[in-house]
Amino acid sequence: MTDNASSDPSLESKTRNNFVRNLIAEQIERGEHSGDVVTRFPPEPNGYLHIGHAKSICLNFGLAEQFGGKCRLRFDDTNPEKENQEYIDSIQADVRWLGFDWDGEVRFTSQYFDRLYGYALHLIENGDAYVDELSSEQAREYRGDWNTPGRNSPYRDRSVAENLAAFEQMRAGEFAEGQAALRAKIDMAAGNMNLRDPVIYRIRHAAHHQTANTWCIYPSYDFAHGQSDAIEGVTHSICTLEFEDHRPLYNWFLEHLPVPCRPVQTEFGRLNLNYTITSKRKLKRLVDEGFVDGWDDPRMPTISGIRRRGYTPESIRNFCETIGVSRGDGVVDASVLEAAIRDDLNVSAPRAMCVMDPLKVVITNYPEDRVETLTAPGHPSREDLPARELPFTRKLYIENDDFREQANKKYKRLVLGKRVRLRNAYVIEATDVVKNERGEIVEVHCRYDADTLGDNPADGVKPKGVIHWVSASHGRRALVRQYDRLFSVEQPGRGDSDFLDDLNPLSLRAFNQCWIEPGLADVPAEHRVQFERSGYFVADRYDHQPGAPVFNRIVALRDTWAKTRDQE
Ligand code: ATP
Ligand code: MG
Known about the structure:
This protein is of the alpha/beta class. Helix 4 (51-66) packs across helix 13, helix 9 crosses helix 10 (247-256) and helix 13 (313-323) packs across helix 14 (334-348). It is elongated. The protein binds adenosine-5'-triphosphate and magnesium ion. The site of adenosine-5'-triphosphate has 14 residues, from helix 4 and strand 8.
């Protein structure tokens, strides 16, 4: 163990798998950095945040927390046509739900449009930028490719005065979209394509959600991003690996402009999760084309979808901690995310019983009008969770699946002529079945052994199985939605295939005949519970009403029921 670990083991384990944390800790140790870390999370408000963004949020806000610094939320709003207020609102709600709060007010790149415009003038005045009037096709051709150096545009050597005048015309709306663009004058032969005179400003005759019609020219991402970082005093500008090739450009702008500070860009590997897509464009298609019920459909990998599915913010943060932060791109198995919520709910979720596919049981030796209130622990190992009251009555429901007329020894549930324990209640023995005209079993008649509450039967033969049940007269009806993975293949849309062809047709199965313990019908929305032997569920954030319960399956239990059952 290192000294660090012995003084704060959690810090040591947290630092181990996060190279950015290590990097900053080393910078501070070497005295290269004061420790006043400033980071930012810079989403474009063109969709809802997804699980990949959660990684970036946990990283940026987490670093600020760990080093006692600040993290800003900045909307990178330079594409007005694709952005809107709904996205701005949802992004803020999602960041807060994850448990983070940004430093100061929310910021917008658009707040800096005046300053960015000034920076553009500065570049022009220094001969570092020019207004190009090549058509987009020509510009592409002049740009060259990996193997061919680009060629200089004929507009490249315009005078400063000419450039200033043309840029003013751009701003004044005298050009059509695509007719002119402001470009940095760097190097058309650069091996790094990003340095081949990248566009700084382009024309968009579009109203902007923050600045309305003030502008018809908008800065490019590359130009706006680094300068916004600098304006905000960001020390560590953390972004995903695909921006590595943009770093020389990021630095070029900082070197050529009178910016107030010099942020340093560091790239990390983005989160890719199998059975999932993390592209806003594709997620938007699922929503727009009605394949899911909105951005927050519980099957969506959006933060709001994951929330509605029933995940806790802690589980997402723990997931992000577990997967770590490295410089490599990898694919994380969806089961890692599922394990994160199981670990959380195994400890925190109270237990309950829910019968999803009911079969009626009549206890023929139990009086018609008798109601006994049995109690069951709220949680097997947490005494702080209140005990549950379970009314026991002559008529009950069990799962269809938990009864067979005949079965071999492996089937440890209720069999005609055999015994089983009702969870938290008595041992019963099936004596008869009632069938309908189609020969289907509609009722099982049983006898109960009144001496078996918490005790083995007098003959000492312990029943092999334990099954769950709900009183038919006191249980409450519920709608239960069993969600599964949205895609049935690991890499949806792999190769040339359409990701829509990979949707899992069984990603939602609704059970509208369910019976739940009476105490569960009136829980508040977003209440989480383990339905024993089945999985973890949450009262739906929107559709659940006290008295009209609707539960979503968050995740199935690991298949450990057989083992625990044998131990009882
Ligand atoms: P998309 O490709 O889905 O549109 P984006 O990267 O364009 O995503 P932004 O709004 O620009 O979306 O992202 C905000 C921040 O989140 C960026 O810093 C980006 O690098 C980070 N981010 C986006 N996707 C992921 C991911 N899968 N893993 C980690 N970070 C991500
Ligand atoms: Mg982006």
